[in-house]
Amino acid sequence: MKVPVTNRTTRPPTQDTWRQLIRLLLAFKGERTDNDMIGDYQCDAWGSSSGETCAPELSALAALGMSVQRERTAFSSQRTAHLRKRVLENEPRFVVMYGGGKTLLPNGNYVATGDDRAPAFQFEAIEGWSVGFKLDGPTKFVRASHPVKVHGPAPPDEYWLAIAKKLCEALSEKPR
């Protein structure tokens, strides 16, 4: 750790996918977005039952990586319906979905609108990467590129920071 955030002297390394999602959240909140702060957030709050985030997976079948053969769409329709129900019940300020390309776009559409066929997102390029936004309604939705690419470069930190800025603007907030 270069810059201690708390009195902690050791912690596990940040997880590659979560690192950028946490960076987006911290930027939205107006907090530091360096890897040390991200690591502390991952350790203390990310996806915890007492925290402010939910980090569900559409596929309930675990795999150590994309190279592991796994039926990745098993249970996705049931889990998508459950996520839609939970969004309606809890009305989060925003939901960020990532990866899956065109294959999972219907799932994202359903979570955002309740209709898997309705085009829910307006796509644009940020830092050369595609991102979709649905910014009407009380909950804002984002369809982002996957934070980690198996082959080739991944979206840069600036991509995630720009998404956070756009969410702040859509929610008429300054980063806290």
Features:
176 residues; 4-stranded mixed sheet; 12% strand; 38% helix; single chain; alpha+beta
Q: N- to C-terminal separation?
A: 24 Å
- Biggest pleated-sheet summary: 4 strands, mixed
Based on CA inertia axes, which overall geometry fits?
globular
Oligomer: single chain
Computed over alpha carbons, the radius of gyration is: 16 Å
Number of helices: 5
The helix content is: 25-40%
Uncertain runs: none
Strand content: 5-15%
Q: How many E-type strands? A: 4
Explain the overall architecture:
This protein has 176 residues and is of the alpha+beta class. It is 38% helix and 12% strand. The protein is built from 5 helices and 4 strands; from the N terminus they run H-H-H-E-H-E-E-E-H. Strands 1-4-3-2 form a 4-stranded mixed beta sheet, with helices on both faces. The two termini are 24 Å apart. The model has no long low-confidence stretch (mean pLDDT 88).
